[in-house]
Write a structure and sequence with these properties.
alpha/beta; three-stranded parallel β-sheet
C-alpha cells in the first residue's frame, strides 16, 4: 500500500557526490573591454550557430571598436567525431591565431 498523505513534502536526494582530488581553481582573468580584442568563436555545428554568430559579430562590432573575430571554421566542430583532438589542440591553436578570448555556444 502506498502512503499518499505527504502534505506537500517529499524526501529529496542529491545524485551528485563530491569529486575526490579536484580542487577549485580561481576564475580566469576577465577582459575589461572587448574593444580591439580578437575573439575566437567555437561551435559544435549544432543548432544554427553560423546564423547566431553572424548576428552577434555585427552587434559586437557596433559596440566595441576594433574588435575582430576568428571564425568557428578555423577550429572545426568541438562536438564531432574528432572532438577530443580538436579540444586538446585548442590551447595551441588559440595562441597561434592570437585569440584574446573565446566565445563558445550553440550546443557546445
Amino acid at each position: 500500500m502506498v502512503d499518499t498523505n505527504h502534505d506537500g513534502q517529499y524526501s529529496v536526494y542529491w545524485p551528485s557526490a563530491p569529486k575526490p582530488g579536484r580542487k577549485n581553481r580561481p576564475l580566469a582573468h576577465r577582459l575589461e573591454t572587448l574593444a580591439g580584442k580578437k575573439i575566437a568563436l567555437l561551435w559544435g555545428y549544432l543548432f544554427r550557430g553560423d546564423e547566431v554568430y553572424a548576428t552577434l559579430e555585427s552587434a559586437l562590432k557596433e559596440k566595441y571598436p576594433g574588435i575582430s573575430f576568428i571564425n568557428w571554421a578555423e577550429f572545426g566542430s568541438i562536438h564531432g567525431n574528432d572532438e577530443r583532438e580538436v579540444v586538446a589542440g585548442l590551447p595551441a591553436r588559440l595562441k597561434e591565431l592570437g585569440a584574446d578570448a573565446v566565445l563558445s555556444g550553440m550546443g557546445c
